[in-house]
Design brief:
mainly alpha, Growth Hormone, Chain: A, 2 domains
């Protein structure tokens, strides 16, 4: 509705128009005064409700994270068990455990072995330098040869292990400084192959998706073997009063490691048969 107001109808306290203006429904009622207490109490109640809902969401997210972590732990355990059942990983675990004994401790025992044969401090320091320099070159050569894809990685490592084993097993023929130089060169060039070739061989055996778990298993086994191998080598030195039995033991471990690695084609065929037998059963389980 439209309504015109004259000057006489302007609401003032004295002319009585104000009361009629207040009671007139066409104009609506006057605005009520805001109750500040009620407003603040409602805002506080809303804040507490929002805090409660946030706590609920946080607790739900934490429970979901715990469930997902538990599921990951179960999957990791299943993956470790399934990897340990693979014949190729079992074979290489055996190879690495025995091969790392001779390849690691040979660097340590060459120096005292040379001292027992009357080498001076200068000559011993030269032997150590030659061994480490050849070790650096040998590891690089292993990578270059493996990158050419001429020979399989496992074959390269097997040859290196056997050459290192023969080098250590001939310890009774070393006496002069030149013979020890030959020992340092041969050992340095071939002993480090097991450490530089292991990552690529593990990928070849179990695949890149299982590399992290498989490599962790191998390193764990190496720690156990290295912890038990050092006291045994020292015990042989103390009993026989010579480093030759220790060198023979390291050579035997390397020969066993290299010969086992040469059986890789047979082990791979066995693993392929196991996977072919297990695949139909998995398909039946998935279809059910």
């Amino acid at each position: 509705k439209k309504r015109s107001i004259s000057l006489s109808e302007i609401p003032t306290p004295g002319n009585g128009v104000l009361s009629s203006f207040e009671n007139d429904e066409t104009w609506g009622s006057l605005p009520h005064r805001l109750d500040i207490r009620t407003h603040h109490s409602s805002r506080l109640s809303q804040s507490f409700c929002s805090i409660g809902s946030t706590d609920v969401v946080y607790s739900l997210s934490q429970s979901q994270l715990n469930e997902s972590q538990a599921q990951k732990d179960v999957k990791n355990k299943i993956m470790i068990i399934s990897l340990l059942k693979k014949p190729l990983l079992q074979m290489y675990l055996f190879v690495y455990l025995f091969g790392s004994i001779g390849s690691s401790y040979g660097h340590i025992y060459i120096s005292p072995f040379a001292r027992d044969h009357g080498m001076t401090t200068t000559e011993v320091s030269i032997l150590v330098s030659v061994t480490n320099m050849c070790d650096f070159i040998g590891r690089g050569l292993c990578g270059v040869i493996a990158n050419q894809r001429i020979v399989k990685n496992s074959t390269i490592l097997a040859i290196s292990q056997l050459v290192t084993a023969i080098t250590l097993a001939l310890c009774s023929f070393y006496g002069s400084f030149l013979s020890f130089i030959a020992l340092a060169v041969m050992f340095g060039l071939f002993a480090g192959a097991i450490f530089s070739m292991t990552p690529s061989i593990v990928v070849d055996f179990v695949g890149i998706e299982n590399f992290r778990t498989a490599f962790g298993i191998i390193i764990l086994g190496q720690g156990i073997t290295m912890g038990t191998g050092a006291p045994l080598l020292g015990y042989l030195r103390d009993v026989y009063l010579s480093y030759m039995p220790s060198f023979y033991f390291m050579g035997a471990c390397l020969i066993l490691s290299g010969l086992t690695l040469l059986m890789e084609p047979c082990v791979r065929k066995r693993q392929d048969k196991m996977e072919n037998v297990a695949r139909p059963s998995e398909e039946v389980a998935l279809s059910a």
